[in-house]
Write a structure and sequence with these properties.
By secondary structure, the chain is an all-alpha fold. The protein has five helices and no strands.
Amino acid sequence: SVCSASLVYAILLKLAHAPQEVWNRIWNDPFCQRFKRPEHEDHWIWNYDFYNAQVEDLQYIFRLISA
């Protein structure tokens, strides 16, 4: 949906220049782990599920990085 695509874009934009502290929140959040590609151990790369996530899941991530 448009809303999901907008949230994905907003998250990516916000994280583009985010400080390490914001990235630490994502790395340490068990919920976010399901959206990380596991083959990249030391670098966060969003997986297919992130780009197709439910609006509620994306809102959670957006709130987490906006805190």
